[in-house]
Write a structure and sequence with these properties.
Two copies of one chain form a homodimer. The first copy, chain A, is α/β, with parallel strands linked by helices and 345 residues long. Chain A contains twelve helices and 18 strands. In chain A, strands 3, 5, 6, 9, 10, 17 and 18 form a seven-stranded mixed beta sheet that branches. In chain A, helix 10 links the parallel strand 15 and strand 16. In chain A, helix 5 crosses helix 11.
Chain lengths: 345, 345
C-alpha cells in the first residue's frame, strides 16, 4: 500500500510500504477513507519535534474495517469506524477512568513500528478498545465532521472542560488554528455566554465567529492582555483555552484569566515552563489544567451531536487533497495558506 | 501599644507604636489575645521577601473587639473575633464567589500603613466583612486551635480542595511545616484513604502521623519520587498538596501525581516556574491549582469542626512566647528548633 512518510524537516513523501496485517489477535486492519493533517504534525515537519527518518506520520483517520483478529469481539469487516489519535486497550484503570491517553498499553499512530493515519490502511492495536463504530449510513459531509472527533474537536472539548467552561461563563480562546476554533465550538456547546477569540488571521476569525465567538482580539502579548481586560471590566475571563503551546501563548493565557479562573491548555508545549507565571497563578488563584486529550473518552459524548447536525466542526477543513498531494497539504498549512488539509482516498 | 516590627533580615524588634483608632466608619479595633508566627513570615525574616525597614509584621490573630466604627453592624465591643490573614469587604463579586483574597478593597496585615497581627491591637478595615465572631465561652485550648483557621489550617484545606481530595483518594503532602501538617488534617477530614507525608524531621513526622498520615517518606527529590511511586504501584497519588514553595518541591509534587491527578499548591512560590514541568503535566494530564487561600471563606466551614473537637490543629504550636519573646520565636523557627510559635498576651 501507499502511505505518508517523514524523512526529515520539510521532507514528506508518499511511499510504498508493507500492507498491514493482523499481528495480534486483538488487532484490526482498517482501510482508511478519510484522514487529515494536524497542526501538531507541523512540529515534526518543521524539525522542532524529532522523528526518525522514514517514520510514518498522521494520527487522525476514519475508515472501514478490513480484517479483525480472533479476539476482537465488537467489530466486523465492513464496519465504518473512527480512530482517536491514540490507541488504548479500553480495559485498564486509566481507560476506565476516561483517561485513555495514559493507558499503559496505548500508543500513538506513526510511532516507530506502527502505521500512521495518513496512509491507505492502518493496523489498529487493541481494536475493541480503540475504535468507535459509526452508523453505516452517514453521508459524506457528516463523515468530514466526524473525522474532527479523532483529534481537534475532542482536543478543543478537552480544553474547554479543563478550563471549567460552564453555562454563562466568559471564555477566551488563545490560538486560531483548528484546535482553537474547535475550542470555540466546544465552549459554545457547554453554554459559554461570551467567547473572545484571540485571532489575527481574518479568514480564521470569520470561522471563529461562525463557530460562536462573540468577540475577537487581534493583538498579541501584553496588548492582547490589555484588550481582553478592557472587554471584561478589568477582570479577565473565567476560562481560557490555550491552543498554541508557546511560552508567549501560555503567558497571555494566564494573564487574561480572571482571579479564581482556569487555563485549559492543550497546545503541545514547546519551549519549557517560562510562560507559566507561577507567582501570578498563586496570587490570583488561576489554575492550569489540561494536556493530551483523551479523545476516546469524548467521542461517545460528542458523536450524537455531530450525527444530529448540532455540532459541525467540518469548516476547519479548507483544503482537500488526495494522498499524492499530502506533501503539498503540509506546505500549504506550514505557509498558512490552509488551515487544515483533509485527505480523501 | 507595643507591636512586632521588622527592620531587616534577622532584625525583629518589639517597639512602642501608636495605638490603633477607628479611622473609617467600617473599621474595628481588636485587642489581640492570641497571635502566632507563620512560616511565610520567615521569608521576610530571612530577607528573601523584601520589607520596608520599620514595617509591621504578623497576619494571624484572634482577640476581642475594643471599638467599632459607625457603619459596623455585625460586631460589638467585647465580641471575641478571629481574623483571616487578609482583610476583605465581604460584599464584592470576589467575596461573594468565596475568593476573598481577590477583593479589590482587601489587604494584608502588616503591609505599609496597616497594623500587623503580632501586636497588642489591630485596626481592622472592613470589619463586618473581615472578622468572624466566635462564641463567647470557648476554652483556652480551643482558642489555640481556632487561631490556626486564620491561616495555616485554612491554607492546608485550600491545598486539599485544590488538589481535589475526595473520599477514598490517595494523597501526598510535600512539606512538613505547619501548613503541610494541616494539609494532612484537611485530607483526612475530606476522606482520603491514604496520606503519604513527605517529612524528614522526626518530630514533625510524628505530628503528621497523629494528624492522619498513613505513611511517611524521608527522601527528597528523585528519591522521594521513586519512593512514592513504589508505594502506589508505580502510579503516583491522586492528589498532591505542595506546601513548600521551592522549585524542587514543585518538581517533586508534579512527579508524584498520578496521571489525571492534581497538585494543590499553597507554598508561596520562591524561585520561579522552573519546577513546573509543563511537558510532564501535558503528557500525563496533571493539573496545578491553588494559591493564596481564601481563609475568610473557609472559616465558617471549619469552625464547627474545631468547636466540636473533631478538628484540632493546635499541636502545630510547639512553642509559646509572650510578646517580648517574639524575636526569639522567629529565631527558634528559623533554626527549626520550633515548628510554630504561639504568642499570648
Amino acid at each position: 500500500m501507499r502511505a505518508t512518510v517523514i524523512h526529515g524537516p520539510n521532507d514528506i513523501r508518499i511511499e510504498h510500504v508493507p500492507d498491514p496485517v493482523i499481528e495480534r489477535p486483538t488487532d484490526a486492519v482498517v482501510r482508511v477513507t478519510h484522514a487529515c493533517v494536524c497542526g501538531s504534525d507541523l512540529w515534526a515537519y518543521r524539525g522542532v519535534a524529532a522523528r526518525q527518518p522514514g517514520q510514518r506520520i498522521g494520527h487522525e483517520f476514519l475508515g472501514v474495517v478490513d480484517a479483525v483478529g480472533a479476539e476482537v469481539g465488537g467489530l466486523r469487516p465492513g464496519d465504518r469506524v473512527l480512530a482517536p489519535f491514540v490507541w488504548s486497550d479500553g480495559t485498564c484503570d486509566f481507560c476506565s477512568e476516561g483517561l485513555h491517553t495514559s493507558c499503559p498499553r496505548g500508543g500513538f499512530w506513526g510511532e516507530p513500528g506502527s502505521d500512521g493515519g495518513q496512509g491507505e490502511a492502518v493496523r489498529v492495536p487493541h481494536a475493541d478498545g480503540t475504535l468507535v463504530r459509526l452508523p453505516g449510513d452517514v453521508e459524506e459531509a457528516r463523515l468530514r465532521a466526524l473525522l474532527t472527533l479523532s483529534d481537534v474537536m475532542s482536543t478543543g472539548h478537552h480544553a474547554a472542560l479543563a478550563a471549567g467552561v460552564r453555562p454563562g461563563a466568559t471564555v477566551a480562546v488563545v490560538g486560531d488554528g483548528a484546535v482553537g476554533l474547535c475550542g470555540v465550538l466546544a465552549a459554545r456547546r457547554l453554554g459559554a455566554e461570551r467567547i473572545i477569540a484571540l485571532s489575527r488571521h481574518a479568514d480564521r476569525t470569520a470561522v471563529a465567529y461562525s463557530f460562536g465567538a462573540t468577540d475577537a482580539v487581534r493583538q498579541r502579548g501584553e496588548e492582547a492582555v490589555a484588550a481582553v481586560r478592557d472587554m471584561t471590566g478589568g477582570h479577565g475571563v473565567h476560562a481560557v483555552l490555550e491552543a498554541v503551546g508557546t511560552e508567549e501563548a501560555m503567558r497571555t493565557a494566564i494573564s487574561i484569566a480572571r482571579d479564581g479562573g482556569a487555563v485549559g491548555f492543550v497546545g503541545v508545549p514547546h519551549g519549557g515552563s517560562a510562560g507559566v507565571d507561577i507567582g501570578q497563578m498563586f496570587g490570583r488563584n488561576v489554575a492550569l489544567r489540561g494536556g493530551v486529550a483523551p479523545a476516546r473518552a469524548y467521542i461517545p459524548d460528542l458523536l450524537p451531536d455531530v450525527l444530529a447536525g448540532r455540532l459541525d466542526p467540518s469548516p476547519v477543513f479548507d483544503l482537500t487533497v488526495g494522498l499524492d498531494e499530502v506533501p503539498a497539504g503540509y506546505a500549504a498549512m506550514d505557509e498558512r495558506r490552509a488551515l487544515k488539509a483533509l485527505i480523501t482516498f
